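Supplementary Text 2. Reproducibility record for the structural model of the 312-residue chain.

All settings were left at their defaults, and a single model was retained for analysis rather than an ensemble. We include the record here because the model underlies the residue-level annotations in Supplementary Table 4.
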Amino acid sequence: MVTYLHRLTPAKVWLGVIPTLWWNDDFINIDIGIPYEQALSEMALAGYVGCGVGHKYPTDPKVLRPALELRGLRISEPWVSTYFTIKAMKRHTLDNVDAQLDFLEAMEGDSNDPRRADLVVSEFGRAVNPLPVALFPNCPDFSEDEWKYLIEGLHEAGEKARARNRQLCYHPHLGTGVMKTEAIHRLMDETDPRLVNMLLDTAHQAAAGVDPLALARKYAHRIKHVHLKDIRAEVVGAIKARELSFQQGIEMGIFTVPGDGSIVTFPEILDALAAADFAGWICVEAEQDPAKANPLQYARMGREYLRKLLGW
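Retained model, structure tokens:
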């Protein structure tokens, strides 16, 4: 029974959208040439108040910030691919964390707006999702040493975020060493909740065979950021049966906006978060080919679905 959704109000929950509806940030050939200004305008037109960072955005905050403010948008998160499991990459990864934290300070300045961006990270050491190989059979399992390096690195990154009044949110991702249920539980068990939070991505979890509702209920108090995204179960099945890559899955339409695919527990997922007094960013995402799925159309579909659930 859904009983707590009324707690998710615009005063403490902010609805954003990830720009992978307009182009893909991992596979830049999945693109039909939409300029970032058009994408931002369509995000605002669809009814969102924030967005993730996309590779087409200007990197100069003096250019990007006015473009967002003109449309009533804020940054919900930047992304950092971490490589802590590769010991030689630790310094490089922490430098990237510092750079993104600096970027957020420049973007937000001394604003008192409570809608602060979170720092979203995911471990990409030995990840296969960027590679032209079968996604599911090649998902890495970390060694004990790799787990040690990962936890230590995340704690250092989390300390950096905390020192800047930011939340570090870990994104379990398809094709990485933190994709399966057991790995997600281990990451949560071995990290300090003061330093490492969870980003719940409903589609990445569901496609990996992880129950996003079970995660929402178990870790409701550690979930500080949400990517609300749906899957097409028939495409997930085809990827497994034909041993396709992550990119091939995206091109086939593995993902769509919430309410358009195979996940039926979105009301219960949001209710579990509401029961834990969730406050923060909930971002619609789809990672679709814009040549096949009109970005504005799907952005509006996702927003309307949330309007029906939340009443606003």
